[in-house]
């Protein structure tokens, strides 16, 4: 089978451009290996070299076991490209060998406070954070959405849901601190929360709660029936 020279492909069909647009999971093994190799030779495109490598070792498992010397025997690969391949495969091996990450699970407002109280209770200005959750209410990430003044933080739905979408979050919990130490929600806090809930409903990301952190105290807007 003859593979095209990548630069001769329409831009939307090139592996690198497809990866940027559609993500790595949409690419074949040959596409990914061609991106790794970057260039071909005078007689073979990067796609053809990638196909030759995979044909020689049959599958990724056998490829991962190949030595640099064995890779270098393939016409057009050579020591430099062989080292690139082995380095990428070694990174994948190290990732696969990492222990499973234990993610905190949020079951109640107290779980949120145990994660964030000490970080937020003594700050001298308002920090607005979001806990991004998966479908099991495990914390995927903690994101700072905005940093405000002594008594206010400006938050736009776009900034919140941009990070939530990027991390493929199923739900978010909003958290911000009151530097005064009093966690009583303001009218603005309640209005903002309702606005973010409405935006989340449109996008398909649930806003589960909004926690206001004070000095070793907190208020859950959901528990108080305010949202």
UniProtKB/TrEMBL annotation:
PROSITE patterns xref list: MPN, UPF0758
CDD domains per record: MPN_DUF2466
Keywords on record: Hydrolase, Metal-binding, Metalloprotease, Protease, Zinc
Transmembrane region(s): none
Biological process (GO), any one: proteolysis
Any Pfam family the entry gives: UPF0758_N
GO molecular function list: metal ion binding; metallopeptidase activity
InterPro entries linked: MPN, RadC_JAB, RuvA_2-like, UPF0758, UPF0758_CS, UPF0758_N
Domain MPN: start-end pairs: 105-227
Family stated for the protein in its record: Belongs to the UPF0758 family.
Protein name (database record): MPN domain-containing protein
Organism per entry: Desulforamulus ferrireducens
Lineage: Bacteria, Bacillati, Bacillota, Clostridia, Eubacteriales
């Amino acid at each position: 089978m003859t593979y095209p020279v990548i630069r001769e492909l329409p831009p939307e069909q090139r592996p690198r451009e497809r990866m940027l647009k559609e993500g790595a999971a949409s690419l074949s093994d040959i596409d990914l290996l061609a991106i790794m190799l970057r260039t071909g030779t005078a007689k073979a495109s990067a796609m053809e070299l990638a196909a030759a490598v995979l044909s020689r070792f049959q599958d990724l498992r056998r490829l991962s076991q190949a030595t640099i010397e064995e890779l270098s025997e393939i016409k057009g690969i050579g020591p430099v490209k062989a080292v690139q391949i082995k380095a990428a495969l070694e990174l994948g091996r190290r990732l696969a060998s990492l222990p499973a990450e234990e993610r905190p699970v949020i079951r109640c407002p107290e779980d949120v406070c145990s994660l964030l109280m000490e970080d937020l209770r003594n700050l001298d200005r308002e920090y607005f954070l979001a806990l991004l959750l998966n479908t099991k209410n495990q914390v995927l990430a903690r994101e700072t959405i905005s940093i405000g003044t002594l008594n206010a933080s400006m938050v736009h739905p776009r900034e919140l849901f941009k990070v939530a979408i990027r991390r493929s979050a199923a739900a978010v919990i909003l958290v911000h601190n009151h530097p005064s130490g009093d966690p009583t929600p303001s009218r603005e806090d309640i209005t903002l929360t309702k606005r973010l809930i409405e935006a989340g409903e449109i996008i398909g990301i649930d806003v589960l709660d909004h926690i206001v952190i004070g000095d070793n105290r907190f208020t859950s807007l959901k528990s108080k029936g305010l949202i």
